[in-house]
Design brief:
- This protein is mostly helical and 326 residues long.
- The protein has one domain (3-235).
- It contains 13 helices and two strands; from the N terminus they run H-H-H-H-H-H-H-E-E-H-H-H-H-H-H.
- Strands 1-2 form a two-stranded antiparallel sheet.
- The longest helix has 26 residues, at 255-280.
Length: 326
């Protein structure tokens, strides 16, 4: 086995735009589930709206790069309002069913050939990041050290994504430690009690849905920034990957989703390199490399089950604030 290649692939997952995009999505989901208690299983839909909001506003409407990011957030906010008006009265499993269906509706609309000139249908969209790359402050060359080597464009995307993530985390931290944050945490614990105190529970839920949706939409824009936007990137499995990252780190925290995203993708990269290498030398009982690569999802799923059993609040969560076994 090539242990050097395994180490390089694993280390690269620590600092990559995909990891940061998942951290953004998990942070937005933390606002929905961790702080308000909304079972949103449609986070892939918010990411898709943000990604295509960025790409379409650039290619179709000629927005500058900064205007495209604003358009991604506005599109995600509008999607949150459209989704929230008829569904926020639902609770628990019913809300989960509606949100997962809404994300699939978004994906199927993007796959439709009706608006193929705008969305690209199954081919997706490309070449929408030229304006963003044109402001790259780093001259051509290689950047990084050790296993972390980037071209100038890759390094610029990474640095920009890190800045957006840090700003977003600070905003969420400030919101959740404000009087507004105490109200939404109260809604998570007992919304009837909060309603009895004269608070408009629906309004607070909608505000949290919009804020979390905008953060997830930005995550979607960052997710497709290095390459292309394709509807298949936003399949239902993406939602469960984000949920895994959130629950690994800790749902009712700000730092937990960030840590969970890193741990999730480092595990994926490590197992995705190690298991096929083990299969090639016959250590997995005759499994092919492709079968061994898919096995990593099973192992990550088992890890999640163990965490739910032994540490339900996640790696950095507070058991007194939120667990899976109230």
């Amino acid at each position: 086995m090539d242990f050097n290649s395994i180490f390089i692939n694993t280390a690269q997952a620590l600092f990559s735009p995909v990891t940061i995009a998942f951290a953004m999505a998990a942070l937005g989901l933390a606002m929905h589930f961790g702080f308000v208690g909304l079972l949103n299983f449609g986070i892939a839909g918010f990411m898709a709206v943000g990604a295509y909001g960025y790409a379409i506003s650039t290619l179709t409407f000629g927005f500058p790069w900064w205007g495209a990011f604003i358009a991604a957030m506005v599109a995600s906010a509008i999607f949150a309002v459209i989704l929230g008006i008829p569904t926020l009265q639902l609770r628990g499993d019913y809300l989960a069913i509606v949100t997962i269906a809404s994300a699939e509706i978004v994906r199927l609309l993007l796959l439709s050939t009706t608006w193929i000139e705008t969305t690209g249908s199954a081919d997706g969209l490309v070449a929408y990041a030229d304006d963003f790359r044109s402001i790259n402050p780093f001259p051509d060359g290689d950047y990084g050290f050790g296993p972390w080597n980037y071209t100038a464009n890759q390094f610029w995307v990474l640095i920009f994504a890190l800045i957006v993530l840090i700003i977003s985390a600070l905003i969420v931290w400030r919101l959740t430690h404000s009087p507004w944050g105490r109200v939404i945490k109260g809604i998570r614990e007992d919304e009837d009690a909060v309603r009895a105190l004269g608070k408009n529970v629906f309004s607070y839920k909608m505000q949290a849905l919009v804020v979390g949706g905008m953060i997830a939409g930005l995550g979607g824009a960052l997710y497709v920034l290095p390459s292309s936007a394709n509807p298949m990137l936003f399949a239902t499995s993406l939602t469960f990957f984000v949920w895994t990252a959130l629950l690994l780190g800790g749902a009712a925290t700000v730092f937990g989703p960030l840590l969970g995203a890193v741990v999730f993708w480092v595990l994926q990269a490590f197992l995705g390199s190690l298991l096929p290498a083990m299969a090639e030398v016959g250590l997995l009982g005759g499994l092919s490399s492709a079968q061994a690569g898919a096995l990593r999802f099973v192992l990550v799923g088992i890890l999640l089950v163990l965490i739910v059993i032994w540490r339900p609040q996640g790696m950095v969560g507070d058991k007194r604030e939120l667990t899976f076994v109230k």
